[in-house]
Amino acid sequence: MTPGEVAERRGEVPPEPRKLGWVLGPPDEVGLIGQIGETYDPFRTVPTLFRLFAEVEDTPDAFAAFAEEYGYLRTGRVQGFLTPHPIPEQYSAWEHARVNLAFAVRLWDALKTGCPDRVIGSQGFPLVAKSDGESLEVAATDSRIDLSGLVADSPREAVQVALRFVVRRGLLRAGVTPTLKVTDAPYGAGLKMTFAVSTLLGAMWLQLALAIDGNCDFRICPVCEKWWDATEARSHKQVCSQKCRSKRTYDRNKQGGGG
User: Are 231 and 217 a contacting pair, CB within 8 Å?
Assistant: First the structure.
């Protein structure tokens, strides 16, 4: 039953058709109707997609909306990858993927704050580190996150080894592999190191891994409330774009009676 059919039974106005044809499918699945005629490169157009997915609510509607906007996690269309007839994916798989990616993002944020010891064992944070007298045994309190067999010598290292383990496993399970790309360079071997990515989930794990490696700084724009990459921005820059800067100036002038 589609969302429109559900709405009609409740006496509500049926929602407009999703622009890319993504709809709620059978129970516990993200389904697809029609055909999709566009592709995109998440690394160029949505470099903060991994953060967006980490913040998605664990509900069928939220997952379907994400699929509508960005595609399936493991099938569908990513740059260089095309599946004409994607197989529906289960919500439980989406929830597991989101929980693990969100956990990795929170670990990274904890390390960036400089106080990773404060998150270990804290309420709402599924990471604990128990001492056996010589080292710390790292574990997760959420059954959907497996951190068995990890040890560390300090709270900071506990967060580091947990982050390294989760990201490495995420990349492997999503099929992200290093490879060499042929270039037009007339010198040397003419090959360049890159990564082969065939799924959207793999792209988001690679986004996170590259962000960690590059010590990237992502912030939320106070105007449009979207994540943006402020890594190379000047220290005084607070908004994501000239458009948001102009809107903020306009709003301030309007509130101050300047027009």
Answer: yes
51-75 pLDDT tens trace: 999 999 998 889 888 887 888 888 6
Identify the burial level of 17 via C-beta atoms within 10 angstroms of its C-beta, where 0-12 means exposed, 13-18 middle and 19 or more buried.
middle
pTM given for the model: 0.74
